Amino acid sequence: MPGEDKIIEVSHLVKHYGKFKAVEDVSFDVYRGDVYGFLGPNGAGKSTTIRTMLSLIRPTAGEIRLFGKNLRTDRNYILQRIGCIVEKPDFYKYLSAEKNLEIFARLSGVNVTKSKVHEIIEFVGLKGREKDKLGGFSHGMKQRLGIAQTLIHDPELIILDEPTTGLDPQGIIDIRNLILQLKNERNKTVLLSSHILSEIELIATRMVIINKGKTIVQGSVSELLNAQELIVAFSVNNIEKAKQLLANASLSTAIDKIDNNNLLLHISQEKIPVVNKLFCDNGVDVFSIEAKRKLEDYFLKLINA
Amino acid sequence: MFWKSTYNEFIKIAAKPRSYIGLGAITLIVGIILFAMKADGMNFISFVTAPFEQSLSFEGNILNGNLIAFIILQMLIIHVPLLIALVTGDLVSGEGAMGTIRLLLTKPVSRTKILFSKYLAGCAYTFIILLWMGFMALIVGKWMFGSGDLMVLNSDGLIVLQEHDLGWRFALGFSVAFLSLTTVATLSLTLSCFSENSIGPIVSTMAIIILFNIIGALDVPVLQKIQPYLFTTHMMAWRSFFEDPLPTEKIINSIVILLVHIVGLLGIAMYKFNKKDILS
Predict the structure, then answer these.
(1) Which residues, 6 or more positions from A191, have their beta carbon under 8 angstroms from its beta carbon?
(2) Assigned domain for B253 exists
(3) Which of A42, A102, A262, B23 has the fewest other C-beta atoms within 10 Å?
(4) For the domain with range A6-225, which CATH number is right: 3.10.20.30, 3.40.1280.10, 1.10.10.10, 3.40.50.300?
(5) A88: distance to nearest CA of chain B, Å?
(6) Complex ipTM value
(7) Nearest residue on chain B to A53, judged by CA atoms?
């Protein structure tokens, strides 16, 4: 664990809307210093869980504790220590970026100075645009302002619900780097919900996967994904011969699946050149070798199980 | 935190373009009335005084600023609710439509305080609208038409109120008119708590006012029983301050009915806003 103290404890959370069960039984713990991935397919209950943690939605049952306190009884104490973006960051478009930040800073429970507002604006790369009204901001700029809004009162915990939705590749990289900066330079605990599994794989230390309103698995990303092993796609001209060679060579590789001319193998990194040499030496042409995202595979296996 | 939240609400109202529609509309409408009165006011007055001219003679400045203010207040008090609802109906639902409600309600301020902040800002806006109307009608009216005694036509006949007896009547009349408009502001804020778009509460507020006015105008015994309890019946209570003698009991009854509506509607708004799941 990055730290011993739990920042978030969600226990057997349930939320029903009439007969519809949005969340059935979600439980997970987030420790201080985590970048915690919160994963699940569409409709799994991620947003409902996050909104419940932020007191936007009342749970039907279950308990939520943040910073060791109960959300029901200590709402304001808890919210003062959280910065969040829930889905897309929406602001008052008739106000400037600076005024928007001031509006939310005033409600944060701490005294935020003008210089702090400008410092945060600079941190998220919006310096020079602070006087502009939000009407003219791109989605990426609003997302940056959203991050600025989460940091304005220097919270201990940052909750980001789908922060990269709708962003272009450069925007996604920028947000990823910002999150890493928050963890490394500002020692923040981050709960990150995202559909982009590669993002979680790159930056999360721990994660939970939920499906159909229930927790499926939670733990350290490296442990869950077995960091020693990769899934590698070998594109070859003779699948049958390649399979035969692997079986004879006893390289302890597991053939995961065969897809057109691709062999998907579970192998350690140091075995990739060995397998490549084996194929080449025995007349199997290798057109490409590509390491597949492990989390994606792991996620799909769990969801489809 | 409550005052910081209220300050935020003032900033938001002041920055919204729609907030100026009311002030602009009042300036335009009152301007047109003043212009029309300046151009053809005596004909308008003679239409009112004609039935009495065989038994009474009218002298002095009849078409004066006090009369103009009275006419304007009477004409506009029916239409100002729309201008009020345009802003107050948007206070909660507008945040939902914009998506800012998600951020707003994740701040360490109770929902009750946030709603009260919005309500206070809405009341302040209502006051500013009425103040502007009063300024345009009374101050600009007096500047254009001078001062004088006020001639009021009501169901009992024609009453002439002396100029020195008008200040307190206008002050209290405007105060009760403010209470009437605050009831409208409270209604639209309450409806705003049930909606995720701005148009719904504004249209619903006007629909309720029109419906209640129709019920109030119908001479049907079963409806007559509920008429005294409709807030629209008491929207013209300010006019009672221009009667002689003053119908104190009637005025107090109207004030109580309006206050009961305000408290009741605010209670509903508070309950709904506190229980509301934010799904937008």
Answers:
(1) A8, A30, A34, A36, A38, A50, A157, A158, A159, A160
(2) yes
(3) A42
(4) 3.40.50.300
(5) 8
(6) 0.83
(7) B106
